[in-house]
C-alpha cells in the first residue's frame, strides 16, 4: 500500500456520503458534492489526517504568493494536477513492503542494538501500542493502567494504522 496512490482516507461529502479517497482526490466533485470533513473513526485520527494533507499540500503544491493561494482556495485544482504534484514524493509513502517505509527510522535498529543486544525481541509490540493512549511499559509493569486498559485493540485497518502511526509520531 502506498499512502499517495491508494484510497485510504475516509472523507465525508456535503451530501453525507462517506468515501475512502487517495490524498489527491480531496478536490474531486468540488462543484457538485465537495468533501467537507474527514470521517475517521477517532478524533485523533481526523486531526492527524488533516495535518498529513496540509503538510502534503505545503510540500508538493505550495502557492506562489497570496494571490495564487486565494485563487486556489476559490477554485481548487483538479485531481490530475494534485496527483501529478503528489507523485513527486511517492517514494516516501509506502506503508508496507521491503525497503524504507512511511515514517521509518532506518537507524533505530543500530541504536537499539548498541544499547541492548536483546532489544530486537522486546521491540515486537501489539498493534494497539500505536494508539496514543496505550499504556507505557512502566504503566504495565506497575499495573497502574486504571482508565485505559491494556490489550483493548487487537486489530486496525490499514488506513487506521497509517493514521495511528502519524498521530504517534507527530504528538509523541
Question: Can you put this structure into words, describing what you see?
Answer:
With 172 residues, the protein is mainly alpha-helical. 39% of the residues lie in helices and 8% in strands. It has seven helices and three strands, in the order E-E-E-H-H-H-H-H-H-H. The protein has helices spanning 43-60, 66-74, 79-86, 108-115, 119-122, 137-142, 158-171, and strands spanning 9-13, 18-21, 35-38. The protein has a three-stranded antiparallel sheet with strand order 2-1-3. Helix 1 crosses helix 7 (158-171). The longest helix has 18 residues, at 43-60.
How is the quaternary structure best described?
Answer: single chain
**Whole-number mean pLDDT:** 84
**H/E topology pattern:** EEEHHHHHHH
Count of helical regions: 7
Shape: globular
- Name the poorly predicted regions: none
Tell me how many strands there are.
3
Rg: 19 Å
Helix proportion: 25-40%
Amino acid at each position: 500500500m502506498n499512502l499517495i496512490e491508494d484510497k485510504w482516507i475516509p472523507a465525508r461529502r456535503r451530501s453525507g456520503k462517506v468515501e475512502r479517497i487517495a490524498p489527491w482526490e480531496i478536490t474531486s466533485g468540488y462543484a457538485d458534492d465537495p468533501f467537507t470533513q474527514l470521517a475517521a473513526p477517532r478524533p485523533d485520527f481526523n486531526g492527524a489526517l488533516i495535518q498529513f494533507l496540509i503538510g502534503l499540500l505545503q510540500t508538493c503544491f505550495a502557492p506562489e504568493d497570496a494571490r495564487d493561494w486565494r485563487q486556489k482556495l476559490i477554485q481548487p485544482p483538479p485531481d490530475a494536477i494534485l496527483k501529478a504534484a503528489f507523485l513527486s514524493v511517492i517514494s516516501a509513502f509506502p506503508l508496507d513492503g521491503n525497503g524504507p517505509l512511511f515514517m521509518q527510522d532506518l537507524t533505530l535498529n543500530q541504536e537499539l542494538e548498541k544499547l541492548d543486544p536483546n532489544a530486537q525481541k522486546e521491540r515486537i509490540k501489539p498493534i494497539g501500542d500505536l494508539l496514543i493512549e496505550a499504556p507505557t511499559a512502566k504503566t504495565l509493569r506497575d499495573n497502574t493502567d486504571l482508565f485505559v486498559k491494556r490489550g483493548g485493540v487487537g486489530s486496525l485497518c490499514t488506513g487506521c494504522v497509517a493514521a495511528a502511526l502519524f498521530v504517534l509520531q507527530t504528538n509523541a
